[in-house]
Design a protein that fits this description.
Elements lengths: L3 E6 L1 H9 L4 E4 L5 H14 L3 E7 L8 H9 L4 E5 L7 H10 L11
Parallel strand pairs: 1-2, 1-3, 3-4
Helix pairs in contact: 2-3
Amino acid sequence: MSQEIAVVGSPEFTTGFRLAGVSRFENVPDDEKDEQLDDAATAALEDDGVGIVVMHDDDLEYLSRNVRQDVETSVEPVVVTIGSGTGGGGLREQIKRAIGIDLMDEDEDS
């Protein structure tokens, strides 16, 4: 079964991923994160078609304790946070560490 990437966050955060071809996303406006981010994160975590959930690391503070624990301990789907606190490794390196392979590695013989 093929799984997809889902992005959870503000429309400004998800737009770049949508332009890159990510089709699953949960938009939560900044002024509604306190009320809606738990539901959006839970929906992404419970979607069987999602293998990787991407969130901005600053958004974790808006999650309730239980949902934050689910996000931080989720194995499938893998939750990757990016943003101000992730350093220079970027999304590619976090995914590689999480699942053990480089999904974006191109075959050099091609």
